[in-house]
Write a structure and sequence with these properties.
This protein has three helices and twelve strands, in the order αβββββββββαββαβ. By secondary structure, it is an alpha+beta fold. The strands form two sheets. Strands 3-4-5-6-7-8-9-12 form an eight-stranded antiparallel beta barrel.
């Protein structure tokens, strides 16, 4: 469980500027790419060779549809909730909203929601939680200023930007991002 939680925490921390303190995806835009309960194995990009994927799964997750989102379980304990919306139907890209659940099974008041991009290819769900550095060069400077970003110097800290305040802002940044997929979930 600790390893599983650590992997999602890394995703959330690396998504520094693409976060909010409340869920922003409206119910009318939610989509459900999986039926019922779905099991997934997590695979990461090989740290020594970015053109390859690790051959051993690092974790098993179960997604269970719960009301208007999915509950994410590892070892029968819920630790996150995830919701999806169409980001670019032509490119088959999904917008991902991920929130970590507190120990009591509820979203805590201090909850953080991070936003990412996913693409389903056959039985794989590739995903990335981009930061402002992943925004296309043409829009980078304008969005950097708009979202009050600063460059962090500490290792792995990434860029820091103000919280996203609306679904429109989430879509604006993710539409401009060029995701580098570093992990995927194998759908079982």
């Amino acid at each position: 469980m600790k390893r599983c939680f650590a992997l999602f925490t890394v995703c959330l921390l690396l998504a520094g500027c693409l976060g909010s303190s409340a869920p922003l995806v409206p119910e009318k835009d939610l989509v459900f790419p999986f039926r019922g309960s779905t099991q997934m194995l997590l695979f990461q990009q090989d740290s020594r060779d970015p053109t390859r994927w690790e051959t051993d799964s690092s974790a098993l997750y179960t997604l269970k549809r719960s009301e208007r989102k999915y509950a994410v379980f590892s070892a029968d304990q819920q630790f996150a909730e995830v919701a999806f919306a169409d980001l670019n139907a032509e490119k088959e890209l999904l917008l991902v909203q991920l929130g970590i659940i507190g120990k009591d099974g509820e979203t805590s008041r201090e909850a953080r929601y991070s936003y990412g991009i996913a693409r389903r290819v056959d039985d794989k769900l590739l995903f990335a939680f981009p930061s402002m550095k992943d925004v296309s060069d043409a829009l980078h400077e304008r969005l950097w200023v708009k979202y009050a970003c600063t460059r962090e110097t500490a290792p792995l800290s990434g860029d820091r930007c103000r919280d996203l305040r609306s679904y429109t802002e989430v879509r604006e940044v993710l539409t401009a991002a060029e995701p580098g997929y570093k992990a995927y979930l194998l759908i079982r």
